[in-house]
Amino acid sequence: MPISPAMISTAPQTNVFAQFEFVTDPSDHFYLSRNTNSYGECFTNASSRVHKKIMQEWKILEKHLHHSIYVRVYENRIDRLRAVIVGASDTQYHDGLYFLI
């Protein structure tokens, strides 16, 4: 059965995606093959200052994201994240999707 405009307008509005989410498989990330910082270090050392700072930033993002921003972070690659910003209503960017990788 095809979907009619009446069905769409009466459909309940639900937020299908979590605003901040952990994902386990980074294999589709464009920069996956780059696994070190400029000093040749990987971000897997949990006792490093960088690792601790990234964890602090994740906690801030998890609690204080604007309703139009969605972030995905990778459990095993803390140096990678993906975000999308949905353009604000009543602007020329309305419903535009702006991806940050």
UniProtKB/TrEMBL annotation:
One of its GO terms (molecular function) is ubiquitin conjugating enzyme activity. InterPro entries: UBC, UBQ-conjugating_enzyme/RWD. This is UBC core domain-containing protein. PROSITE patterns: UBC_2 (PS50127). PANTHER family: (E3-INDEPENDENT) E2 UBIQUITIN-CONJUGATING ENZYME, UBIQUITIN-CONJUGATING ENZYME FAMILY PROTEIN. SUPFAM superfamilies: UBC-like. Residues 49-101 form the UBC core domain. Keywords: Transferase, Ubl conjugation pathway.
